[in-house]
């Protein structure tokens, strides 16, 4: 199943190569024509709808750190799907007990549960601009989100980073998993490539993807991210 999904990835990576900053803005504007055209978004319902950006990348790609910087600089609400599940797991709700049971069995929460937690977080927030960090992780996550929410994300930010860089970052950071070692990190990356990259490929084909080079320092990466959100500042 995974092998069939991955056959289209070389085409994606050859097509969405890194470009200069000026060209990046042109590409992003072309991808987001429906967002950037005020004439097509005059209704109050559209203006009041949440603006959602999915943020994807492998472990150690820097997406979490960049989400924090984007949220602080541009006023987005940062929502981590994993954080929502952990919070629910330790609550007294029926779904929290179910999540705990699944975790003990080595299973993961159903996509519908995660999406409903995301929807609840969006609906309860005063903010209307959201970064959904690390979600959707799979095509099943993606289809569940679009079915339950009834909408696609406004765009998808993807941090593209070489495997050796991601492995080094995960092993060097203090907040990593207690069992992190080179083998376990590489196994996680295999799952990420097989399960998450098809989601990236899907949104690339739909013209909603913005790929960012995830190498370099946090500041260098953020300077590649900044023009995207600066161009949106008056529109969301």
Mean pLDDT: 81
Report how far the terminal alpha carbons are from each other: 38 Å
- Compute the number of strand runs: 5
Contiguous uncertain segments of 5+ residues? 1-45
**Main sheet: strands, sense, barrel:** 5 strands, parallel
Number of helices: 14
Order of helices and strands: HHHHHEHEHHHEHEHHHEH
Structural class: alpha/beta
Estimated share of beta-strand residues: 5-15%
Q: Widest sheet: strand order?
A: 2-3-1-4-5
Global morphology: globular
Name the helicity range.
55-70%
Write the layout of secondary structure elements.
Blueprint: H1 2-6, H2 9-15, H3 21-31, H4 33-36, H5 44-48, E1 51-57, H6 63-74, E2 77-80, H7 81-89, H8 94-104, H9 111-124, E3 129-133, H10 139-149, E4 155-160, H11 163-172, H12 182-195, H13 197-205, E5 209-213, H14 218-232
Parallel strand pairs: 1-3, 1-4, 2-3, 4-5
Helix pairs in contact: 3-14, 6-14, 7-8, 7-9, 9-10, 11-12
Give an overview of the whole structure.
With 236 residues, the chain is of the alpha/beta class. 58% of the residues lie in helices and 11% in strands. The protein contains 14 helices and 5 strands. It has a 5-stranded parallel sheet, with helices on both faces. The termini are far apart.
Give a short summary of the structure.
This protein is α/β, with parallel strands linked by helices and 236 residues long.
